[in-house]
Amino acid sequence: MSGTEKAMQGVADTLREFWAHRPVRPRAGRKLGGVATGIALRFQIDPVIVRIAFVALALSGGVGLPLYLAGWLLLPEEGDQVSPLESLLHKGHSSASPTTTVFVGILMFPALAFMFGGNGGFQVFVTLGAAAACIYLLQKNRGHLQPATTLPDQPTVATPPVPGAPAWDPLGAAPFAWDLPEPAPKPQPPAPRPRKSRIGATTLGVAVLTVAASAILGAWVPWFTAAHTIGLVLGVLAAGLLVGSFVGGGRGLIWLMIPLSVVGFGMTAVDFDFDSDTRISSYNENPRFVTDVKDRYETSVGSVTLDLRDLPDSGEVKTAIDVELGEAVVHVPKNADVTFRCEASSIGELDCLGKRAEGSSVAVDGRDLGNNGEGGLKIDLDVRSSVGEVRVLRD
Q1: What Å distances lie between residue 319 and 125, 159, 273, 301, CA to CA?
Q2: I need a labelling partner for 206 at 20 to 30 A (CA). Which of 29, 62, 216, 280 fits?
Q3: Alpha-carbon distance 354 to 373, whole Å?
Q4: What would the mean pLDDT of 232-258 be, rounded to a whole number?
């Protein structure tokens, strides 16, 4: 057997061992389905780290949502013979009702659609691979540990001593010795001071070097943006948390990882198309002649208000408004023939000559001939906002 075949066989054996001794979802100490708490108890790590990992995965293209639901379906609950999904297939008893199991299974469909429906297909597969690698490393390095019976932050309840019993016999098992003097306590050597972990500082150092290297790379590679830098830094922080879960330390990285995850999610989910020619401001335009109307009005952050009510009653006007983050408002004359298309490409609210829509990736279009029917000034509008409000008003 070649070295590659042996390595693959070792990976397969580790995954089979993980399934045979998979985590059990506890009934106490869990926040939702007990998946994160069960993983923490199985591998004796802080449950906060596991919960933060699921949140980070949820913000990385929505990967954490189907993974958590899969754990809910495939991990048995404390005291059950099999998992909810296996019970639904009549392979044993589970305390989860079939209705609950089916409901969680139905939730998998929108979760998977959200995960694969965006533009980050490659990112999704990379994140899934990283999650599988984390599970493999946990089983490889901590699979031999016995599952903890209590959470790390819950004290173990000791058996109360029998009243009157000496400290060396708290259960009162030797009544004949009750009159014996208490044994002198042995002097205990001073406990060594715990060595401060350097995982956090080392990870932060690597993260700073990553930012510096990304800045140099961005100067030479046009497509390498700030979103890529944030993704690399999140990967470094996640690796630091993973190592810290084995050797201790690094929990402070969580408070840096959370805001970076939110910023990275916003930069990838919302299509901001900034360039050096766009304006970051709010302004009003009130042209009085057809020739004064520009072909395009745009801004990155702010609002654009275009008032066409002072235009003459004849002629043709065609213009577009593009706002990345903010509001786009167009006022048209009462008698103009208006052909319009309004769009919120990421998320927003539309109100265009009586047609309304709100939500994610919404658009409306149509033609409105005004109060006097067809004839007179003709206006062709294309109004877009990536995130914000779009209105075309006749007033």
Answers
A1: 41, 81, 19, 20
A2: 62
A3: 16
A4: 73
